[in-house]
């Protein structure tokens, strides 16, 4: 079910805002999506009527909060087809990946062995591997595709006898390229290599069935799929998570503590030290309810039609450098010849009410490969329209004239 303009404005109040006299056009979805009112209402309801710490209390509010929190976990588990114990709440993809690198780094699974990543990663799936390789004694192999475009055969040719783990994005936050994770996982499993997917961009646009695709570990963020900021998910296969050591230590993640030792809690608590973001989890559940109502198939179809349309229109402009490959989704990354991307973003905002991102997009190794330090990115979600893309094209033509 896709929504009418009226429903969209009712559900996403930000869409009713204007910049000067221009209605906001929100094309910064790869950074953060808009929040529907069912999400803000769910969070408000939690704080207004049920706020208490979870798991520890015998009183009514604590029981209600615990039930809401664990129901959220169940919904998310169902959404990705995981077991509830396999869903670890984190602050977002960045924390999920740090959790993973610290945890697997402390184990001996990858000690002295190779971890294969790529240079098209967001810094979140790059810097932790690069920085912690020394601390934990593993090697990082970087697949550095020419022109920043991922190629499966080239990628696979980087796998060696020593490769024990692959950590790769499902979809580039710069080029929108969709990575063939199914093929990577199949190939890796034949060689006994584990695969972690950074699903920050992939999951909101395609959903995922972790059992069907057989991914070993997955990270994603709530705020890129209609949920609030500060909540995300780390998924791992139960049999693997059980063997990994905890990341954070403290309350909630223990079974028994003595002066000599600590016995850790079962999954998922083992990986969730301290008071969790219950309101965030409740909000993420509401976001998933909303996505389910719209329907993932509808989201995918809308993305495809809108991206194709935007690519066609932007390719017709002879003053634009475009960084997308053909198979990109929901993201258009470009530069206006001879104009700094920050100027482009500022003028689009001030004169046309259009929000695009500009800068290095937290992917400097990839931008280096693309031969630039900074770009503009327009990124779409299901509430964006072809008319809005037309406005972007009008804005870009205006900018070209302005700087003539
Ligand atoms: N990975 C990718 C592909 C992303 O696009 C992003 C954010 O833009 C992240 C990781 C980091 O997500 P977060 O900032 O929610 O932790």
Report on the structure:
With 404 residues, this protein is α/β, with parallel strands linked by helices. The chain has 2 domains: 5-30 and 295-402, Aspartate Aminotransferase, domain 1 (Alpha-Beta Complex), CATH 3.90.1150.10; 40-293, 3-Layer(aba) Sandwich (Aspartate Aminotransferase, domain 2), CATH 3.40.640.10. It is built from 15 helices and 17 strands. A 7-stranded mixed sheet has the order 4-10-9-8-7-5-6, sandwiched between helices. It has a 4-stranded antiparallel sheet with strand order 13-14-17-16, covered by helices on one side. Strands 1-2 form a two-stranded antiparallel ribbon. Helix 3 packs across helix 11, helix 12 runs parallel beside helix 15 and helix 13 packs across helix 15. The longest helix is centred in the first third of the chain and has 21 residues, at 60-80. Residues 30-31, 92-94, 122, 124-125, 169, 173, 198, 200-201, 221 line the site of pyridoxal-5'-phosphate.
């Amino acid at each position: 079910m896709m929504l009418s303009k009226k429903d969209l404005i009712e559900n996403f109040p930000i869409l009713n805002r204007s910049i000067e006299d221009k209605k906001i056009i929100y094309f910064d979805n790869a950074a953060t999506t808009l929040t529907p009112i069912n999400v803000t209402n769910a969070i408000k309801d939690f704080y207004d009527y049920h706020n208490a710490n979870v798991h520890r209390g015998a009183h009514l509010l604590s029981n209600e909060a615990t039930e809401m929190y664990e129901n959220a976990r169940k919904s998310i588990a169902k959404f990705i087809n995981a077991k509830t114990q396999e869903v670890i709440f984190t602050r977002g993809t960045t924390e999920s990946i740090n959790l993973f690198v610290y945890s697997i780094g402390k184990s001996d699974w990858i000690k002295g062995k190779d971890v294969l990543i790529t240079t098209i990663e967001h810094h979140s799936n790059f810097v932790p591997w690069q920085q912690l390789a020394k601390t934990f004694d593993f090697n990082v192999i970087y697949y550095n595709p020419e022109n920043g475009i991922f190629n499966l055969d080239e990628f696979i040719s980087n796998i060696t006898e020593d490769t024990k783990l692959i950590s790769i994005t499902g979809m580039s936050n710069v080029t929108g390229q969709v990575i063939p994770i199914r093929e990577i996982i199949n190939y890796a499993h034949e060689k006994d290599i584990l695969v972690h997917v950074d699903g920050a961009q992939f999951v909101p646009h395609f959903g995922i069935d972790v059992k069907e695709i057989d991914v070993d570990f997955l990270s994603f963020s709530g705020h890129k799929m209609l949920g609030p900021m500060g909540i995300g998910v780390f998924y791992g296969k139960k049999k693997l998570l059980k063997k990994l050591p905890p990341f954070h230590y403290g309350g909630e993640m223990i079974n028994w503590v003595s002066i000599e030792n600590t016995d850790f809690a079962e999954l998922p608590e083992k990986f969730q030290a301290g008071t969790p973001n219950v309101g965030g989890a409740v909000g993420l559940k509401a976001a998933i309810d909303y996505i389910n109502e719209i329907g993932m198939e509808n989201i995918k179809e809308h993305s495809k039609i809108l991206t194709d349309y935007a690519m066609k229109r932007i390719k017709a402009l002879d003053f634009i450098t475009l960084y997308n490959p053909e198979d990109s989704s929901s993201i258009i990354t470009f530069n206006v010849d001879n104009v700094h991307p920050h100027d482009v973003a500022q003028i689009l905002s001030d004169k046309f009410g259009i929000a695009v991102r500009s800068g290095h997009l937290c992917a400097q190794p990839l931008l280096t490969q693309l031969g630039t330090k900074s770009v503009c990115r327009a990124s779409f979600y299901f509430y964006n329209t072809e008319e809005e893309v037309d406005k972007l094209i009008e804005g870009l033509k205006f900018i070209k004239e302005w700087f003539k």
